[in-house]
Write a structure and sequence with these properties.
Largest sheet: none
Oligomer: single chain
Structural class: mainly alpha
Number of strands: 0
Shape: elongated
């Protein structure tokens, strides 16, 4: 696994766990750890970028499989 894939996966896990906690217990882990400031927004942005990266990788690998 490339480093960027590992980082993207970690951010996706952070985002998924955070949204699971928000949905189940109304508890936002990221906001409680980092506050309501810039750091929280940066983490949310990185989670989004990680999701976009993984989505691009998924479609790229799907296209490769369909071509073979």
């Amino acid at each position: 696994m490339k480093n960027i894939e590992l980082i993207a996966t970690i951010f996706l896990l952070v985002g998924g766990i955070n949204w699971g906690l928000v949905g189940a217990f109304d508890y936002n882990l990221v906001t409680n750890l980092l506050g309501d400031g810039t750091a929280t927004r940066v983490v949310y942005g990185l989670v989004g970028l990680g999701a976009l990266y993984q989505m691009m990788q998924h479609f790229k690998s799907k296209k490769t499989v369909e071509e073979s």
